[in-house]
Amino acid sequence: MRLLYVTQSYFPFLDKGGPVVKVRALARGMASAGHGVTVLTADLGLDEAKRKALQAVPNRWGYEANEEGVEAIYLSTRARYRALTWNPGVAGFCRDRLAGFNLAHIYGLYDLIGPRVARACRGNGHPYLVEPMGMFRPIIRNIGMKRMYHAVLGGPMIAGASRVIATSNQERDELLEGGVPNEKIVVRRNGIEVPSRLPSRGDFRNKWNISKHVKLVLFLGRLVSKKSPDLILEAFSRWQRSSRGAQGSVLVFAGPDEGDGYRQRLEALAAGMGLNGGVLFTGPLYDNAKWAAYRDADLFVLPSQNENFGNTAAEAVACGTPVLVTDRCGIAPIVDRRAGVVVPHDSAALEAGLGQILDHPEFAADLRMGCAGVSRSLGWAEPLSEMEILYRKLVPERRTD
Questions:
Q1: Contact indicator for 56, 170 with CB cutoff of 8 Å
Q2: How do residues 150-182 score in pLDDT, each as one tens digit?
Q3: CA-to-CA distance for 202 and 127, rounded, in angstroms?
Q4: Which CATH code for domain 2-191+380-399?
């Protein structure tokens, strides 16, 4: 089959979060299975260094690159507002190339590329799927604009899709509540791709001068209100004051700031709580640096208000690190009492969760032992197989190659 993947952000723009990693894993997995895969995305800043690393070359729409059998088309960006970009080349791409694909898979919402491709697919009878990636329900900020997007662009795009992909039962429920027909929804979990060789334990602590005797709590992800880093900061402060075993513990925030000063607000909040020496901001961590942080953490926390799955928690589990997640994360039922603890989205509940794991070594050891079994169930093989079966079901026989 010839597959078109459409996404607002793609590799190498890892600062845009887990969706970049997910779409890349799915694209490379399908390519390795023998399918032709093209990723259509926006140029979010392909400077000379990135172009050289990708071996990207100019084309009529912007740039193109090839990686492990995946063709990536980076559409020239003419205007930008926050994460939204205007990429006029998408019209020409659809006119010239869309007929060569059997099916399109559109990832995410709140961009202008996906709706344009969806409209072209509807115009010529091409099947397409939409995977909202946790964006279907408007929350946190710009709610009015998001609702307007759904009314004008998102609604028709989802209505015309052959299927809508949810990555957890939690996301499926959100889609149902939003009016998406049950028969159109397919639940397919995310997977994790773990390096063949993980960094040695101690690498992260050595780099940041953290003693092996210090309890290290890790938050790894974008510093945005949706993920509630302020909530875990408050819970950590209270746990540190109340627990006799919390002496010298450290809370690590590893992730990019969205550019709206959120990190500065967290730093001020930590200072106001008297946590100057107990909180470390590393900035974003990628590749080996990311895996080294997972390996050296005593506990990984994902305190999100809403998380359709929770790839970072899955990656932490793959490194043998117990997790503390809220019940608003799609991965919660998978890890609960096996590799972690699930609590309500509440500061007091998070504080209790910290104590439950960090103050009880035997319980923490049981969770670490459980990580291996959970990790084995979170690979990409099963999701990729499910997607291939679904694609073949949706592609008319006359268009299969």
A1: no
A2: 788 888 999 999 999 999 999 999 999 999 999
A3: 49
A4: 3.40.50.2000
CA distances from 49 to 20, 54, 285, 367 (A): 19, 9, 19, 42
Tell me the per-residue pLDDT of 352-374, one tens digit each, with 9 for 90 and over.
999 999 999 999 999 999 999 99
d(Cα 374, Cα 370) in Å, to the nearest integer?
A: 7
Q: How far is CA 301 from CA 64, 238, 280, 294, in A?
A: 37, 15, 15, 11
pLDDT of residue 399: 47
Which CATH number is 203-376 given?
A: 3.40.50.2000
Cα–Cα distance, 255 to 273 (Å, whole number): 21
Cβ 387 vs Cβ 26: under 8 Å: yes
Are both 2-191+380-399 and 203-376 of the same fold? yes
Q: Residues 221-262: pLDDT tens digits?
A: 999 999 999 999 999 999 998 887 777 899 999 999 876 788
Q: Which amino acid is at 138?
A: P
In the chain, how many H helices and how many E strands? 16, 17
- Mean pLDDT, to the nearest integer, of 76-86? 89
- CA distances 305 to 67, 226, 230, 277, 326, Å, are 35, 6, 11, 27, 8
Burial of 265 (0-12, 13-18, 19+ CB in 10 A): middle
Domain residues of the chain, as ranges? 2-191+380-399, 203-376
**Predicted confidence band at 285 (pLDDT cuts at 50, 70, 90)?**
very high
Interatomic CA distance for residues 332 and 67, integer angstroms:
33
Picking from 76, 74, 56, the residue whose alpha carbon sits closest to that of residue 65 is: 56
